[in-house]
């Protein structure tokens, strides 16, 4: 090794020993007679000292030629610092330099390599290798490393076998769009990159592997949103001879282990809620349960109440659902603030038609935007129904069930944020259960699998497959933390006939089902065990643990929203010779 | 869980307890009044017992409807076996069945699910999920799992950080052929799948990550040989502030750890040999050192000897090299056997023009195919030079250095196999050092990087870059075990100018170098540390540890020699809609 120690290692107990360090110049302070260099590596920072009368003129000259981010090799004697720095572990000592070698000079970086940088997104992405030098970014990847390690510790301890499934697989039309790979050896044919190893992990169960896991790259060619990446990583798991309860317990165990091992947090038992309940109480199948502010219906299906009809307010009269939340302590909102909130809710992304408020003033009086329709007694009854107290603000939307709930869910999250109830260092987990098996796609006029086509219906709901597809519940579950779906899975179909029926419901002809998933249905005929599993979004889980919103900060070399890696400038054109070999051509845009 | 125990778990200490097992029917023995079922899962086999007078007629009826590979759930009482089976851990007990449920029936498998199967390669690949049920195949993947686990244990313990590098990267013309992925969002442009994460791991060193590793899928679109796969797995590693010696020690440590942890073998210190020595002594840069039979030159460059010229044998007179091996105890080879060996060596794959033998008979006389040219004194001198003893057989080839060594290397391996000197349970490792930096490609009339373009020349050989490219040695090393290259790496170039010069030597124009590797050369200007690394072929390492020749047996879902997965029938055509979205077209074959 070019060094004897790292830059995070020396202590007062090393006093008077000789050490050689390698690292990057973080800062130089030149006081004329004394010159200090902060030398940085992954492990920390150590102060180098050059002193008039003690250090040769030659070393001073070298030091004065240095710039930020130069790579140095410095040898010297460890001495106690006169002025100690209690903020860093090496703060008690410094290295009195006796030799100094520039291993590599550095041009001035295009942005500051500091915790707070002056570089914008684009420049930091182009020079991602410099951005990765910054402590917060490096710490994110160190967190990710620990998360992966600890995931394996837990899974290995539970007898799961890590099996690598193939990356070059087969394109299937169900689900998101595939990335495809032309096959040179099989002209005109293509591999696809896996959106998940779903069918392979099920085959491993048919093979008797019993417990499988993998931390694995998956791929989806979707138009990218802020927190989507074309390649992403899953913790992918499957177990045999299990029921839903077994999966919930096993993977609640994983998440609790990760919280304990990585963050030192003892996580409470994870509560459970049905999909129907989550939609009624939070308007979302991934509610943020760090705070309450649950939905209260003034007119609705939830508790069959109607406190709004027949008073001449046609908006409510014609609405399927009138539902609101009580924002505690928000009665002080001005008319202007309420208008802004209304405008926020009416943006196309949310699409509400309006927002009704009921303000419970500190003096006990009530004020509402609809008080010309409703008497004070009506409004008092509403406030009581909301459980509101003086100083609170009730926010109410109406319309058809689906839309109203979705809008109010957004408003609830917004109010939670405004009230500081969404602290990223607080973690609230929830199992959401009993998802619908199918959802109807209006655009395509057909049924889609809400989870995927391999999810089993609840046995007691199988008769509904003949009569009421929308009511069939799935043996499917999501793990939600802080309003983010971090994992989801299901008990699978393991019977050929039921699987074939499922494909038929999803609009596959027998031939299509056989061509695309024949191997799986065949496998079910050779002794397939009952099985189920789950997959966690690893990037998302890491960002959640790191208290960040974007997964991009937890990926070493992410792509931008156009799917480009601007550092390596990819994707890029390939040569005509490559196209010829692959027997493909590009088509004019 | 549907079971209380696995099929490998119950012991005599569980006597008289109730247990529920799940698994597959391995065998059924029906003796009329008594019926035994061997129930199998990943963990073992447990014998189920049904007995007249003790077991209900209904259970007997169910049992008699069973076939091989049916999936069962069986509950019963653990009892001591009358006739114990010492060959299996559960052999002292059996489960006296009180209830039996068929979880899933099974069609008759297309081949026997036994250690020795009757299924050919093709049928086993088509039904890979059944092949994976066989103990030897499952054990291979369990070995792979342990290898991965123990690799991580070692690397984590040495402060390496696991970082995931991207799979969708950029196509570069150097090296093997890339698999490419058309970008829908960037029409006319393509990603490439990585042949290795080489540039990314170097960038991580520039980022100061100091020690990186990853067990990672890589991809090469090559015409497949028996033991190549289009997707394969590497243990990929890189370290900063190191010299070659540090890498050798660190990764010799990894291999020794794996041998100890996975196979219980204390591995001797790994000897080292230069490339030049390996070529001279074994005719190969990956010699199998489980046995000696080293090359002895009768005329050559190695020890500047010439014991063959001027005796009228023009084949040797005109040869650059006359070189042989001494096969101990093979003097009994008949003329017919020698002719067969000669024919074997003359096959196009090896391409020798002939084979000269010198037989040292047990009675001390010598017999050679060239004894009309050479006197008994000549032949005696040869035999002495070979260190041969009565009963030995010397096998000699001649020609130009490169070809003769290659041919004799093949012959040496063949003789080693015939003599039983290549026991797969014996492991002999070797570091091969000081590889040439460049090799001349006659076909393309240009120099190629022997390792890759990022490998640094030995500092003392840098002046030779101006005068004698073929003599420049690289800071590159391979780890060879039993004649297989299991890992290779190098100390990297970390200086922009030297890297640019290397690209220029390899025939890149400045523009090409900048377009393809500009990001890396840029990175070298912002403070790149000295660094180096290594990558191990993980599939190969697993097959070596498993004592097998083919990597395919250590991959869960391998592809065949045409790059096809015949189980899922991939690659396959994709829809015109997909092609349209990607703005590509297939071209007639």
Question: Would you give an account of this structure?
Answer:
The structure is a homodimer of 589-residue chains. The first copy, chain A, has 589 residues and is α+β, with helices and mostly antiparallel strands. Chain A is 28% helix and 24% strand. Chain A has 16 helices and 23 strands. In chain A, strands 6-9-10-22-21-20-17-11 form an eight-stranded mixed sheet, with helices on both faces. In chain A, strands 1-2-3-5-4 form a five-stranded mixed barrel. In chain A, strands 12-13-16-14-15 form a five-stranded antiparallel sheet. In chain A, a hairpin with a 7-residue loop joins β7 (180-182) and β8 (190-192). In chain A, α4 crosses α15 (538-545). Chain A starts with 17 loop residues before the first strand and ends with a strand. The mean pLDDT of chain A is 95. Chains A and B meet through β1, α3, α4, β6 and β7 of A and β1, α3, α4, β6 and β7 of B. β23 of chain A pairs antiparallel with β23 (584-586) of chain B, so a sheet runs across the interface.
């Amino acid at each position: 090794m070019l060094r004897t120690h790292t830059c995070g290692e020396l202590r007062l107990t090393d006093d008077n020993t000789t050490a050689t360090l390698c690292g990057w110049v973080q800062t130089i302070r030149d006081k004329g007679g004394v010159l200090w260099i902060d030398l940085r590596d992954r492990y920390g920072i150590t102060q180098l000292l050059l002193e008039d009368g003690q250090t040769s003129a030659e070393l001073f000259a070298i030091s004065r030629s240095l710039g930020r981010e130069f790579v140095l090799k410095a040898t010297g004697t460890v001495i106690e610092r006169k002025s100690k720095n209690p903020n860093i572990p090496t703060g008690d000592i410094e290295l009195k330099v006796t030799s100094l070698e520039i291993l590599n000079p550095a041009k001035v970086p295009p942005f500051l390599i500091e915790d707070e940088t002056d570089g914008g997104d684009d420049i930091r992405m182009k020079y991602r290798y410099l951005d990765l030098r910054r402590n917060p970014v490096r710490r994110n990847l160190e967190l990710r490393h620990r998360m992966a390690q600890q995931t394996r510790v837990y899974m290995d301890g539970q007898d799961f076998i890590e099996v690598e499934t193939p990356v070059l697989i087969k394109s299937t039309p169900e689900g998101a769009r595939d990335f495809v790979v032309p096959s040179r050896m099989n002209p005109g044919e293509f591999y696809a990159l896996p959106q998940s190893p779903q069918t392979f992990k099920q085959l491993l169960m048919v093979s008797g592997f019993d417990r499988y896991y993998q931390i694995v790259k998956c791929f989806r060619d979707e138009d990218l949103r802020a927190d989507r990446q074309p390649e992403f990583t899953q913790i992918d798991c499957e177990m045999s001879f299990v029921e839903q309860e077994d999966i919930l317990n096993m993977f609640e165990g994983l998440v609790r282990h990760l919280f304990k091992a990585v963050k030192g947090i003892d996580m409470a038992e994870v509560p459970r809620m049905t999909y129907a309940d989550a939609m009624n109480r939070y308007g979302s199948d991934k509610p943020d349960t760090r705070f309450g502010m649950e939905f209260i219906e003034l007119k609705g299906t939830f508790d069959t109440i109607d406190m709004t009809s027949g008073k001449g307010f046609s908006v409510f009269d014609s609405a399927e659902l009138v539902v609101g939340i009580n924002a505690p302590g928000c009665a002080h909102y001005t008319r202007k603030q309420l208008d802004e909130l209304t405008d926020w809710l009416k943006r196309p992304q949310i699409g509400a038609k309006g927002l009704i408020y009921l303000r419970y003033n500190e003096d006990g009086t009530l004020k509402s935007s609809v008080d010309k329709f409703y008497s004070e007694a009506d409004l008092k009854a509403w406030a009581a129904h909301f459980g509101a107290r003086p100083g609170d603000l009730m926010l109410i939307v109406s319309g058809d069930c689906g839309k109203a709930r979705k809008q109010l869910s957004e408003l609830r999250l917004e109010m939670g944020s405004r009230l500081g109830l969404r602290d990223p260092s607080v973690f609230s987990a929830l199992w959401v259960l009993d998802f619908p098996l199918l959802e109807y796609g209006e655009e395509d006029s057909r049924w889609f699998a809400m989870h995927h086509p391999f999810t089993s219906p609840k046995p007691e709901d199988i008769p509904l497959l003949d009569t009421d597809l929308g009511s069939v519940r799935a043996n499917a579950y999501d793990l939600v933390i802080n309003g983010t779906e971090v994992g989801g899975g299901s008990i699978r179909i393991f019977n050929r006939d039921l699987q074939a029926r499922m494909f038929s419901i999803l609009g596959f002809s027998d031939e299509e089902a056989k061509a695309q998933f024949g191997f799986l249905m065949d496998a079910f005929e050779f002794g397939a065990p009952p099985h189920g599993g789950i997959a966690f979004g690893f990037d998302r889980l890491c960002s959640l643990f790191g208290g960040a919103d974007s997964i991009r900060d937890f990926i070493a070399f992410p792509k931008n929203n156009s799917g480009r890696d601007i550092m390596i400038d990819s994707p890029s054109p390939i040569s005509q010779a490559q196209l010829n070999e692959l027997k493909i051509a590009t088509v004019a845009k």
